[in-house]
Amino acid sequence: MDKVMRLASEKGVVLFSKSSCCLCYAVKILFQELGVTPTIHEIDQDPEGREMERALMRLGCNAPVPAVFIGGELVGSTNEVMSLHLGGGLIPLLKPYQALC
């Protein structure tokens, strides 16, 4: 869990993903459309990926990926991110991390 928390707090927007996950891809595209470039950790390509997956579940993720952290805080998986976005709460959280146009 230490590695997950360290990685999650190193950058403003962090996404734990699997390279073959379509829901992870959807979250990546959403962030891209919102002008945010998250730091992405593909846990299926990390030698400690299984441990990271278990740590994400212990932190409260319903599914281990995608797991989104903003400002070092766990936002959640696809359902939480999309619900937050549809409710108008995601953009204010991402504002400090959006690219300047």
From TrEMBL:
**Domain of life (superkingdom):** Eukaryota
- Where in or outside the cell is it found? Cytoplasm
For this protein, the record's InterPro entries field holds: GlrX-like_pln_2, Glutaredoxin, Glutaredoxin_subgr, Thioredoxin-like_sf
**Primary site of residence:** cytoplasm
- GO cellular component terms attached to this protein's record: cytoplasm
Can you give the residue ranges of the Glutaredoxin domain?
13-75
According to the record, the signal peptide region is none
Keywords (A to Z) from UniProt: Cytoplasm, Redox-active center
Gene3D superfamilies under this entry? Answer: Glutaredoxin
Q: Which family does it belong to?
A: Belongs to the glutaredoxin family. CC-type subfamily.
Know the name of this protein? Monothiol glutaredoxin-S9-like
Native organism taxonomy: Eukaryota, Viridiplantae, Streptophyta, Embryophyta, Tracheophyta
Gene behind this protein: LOC111313410
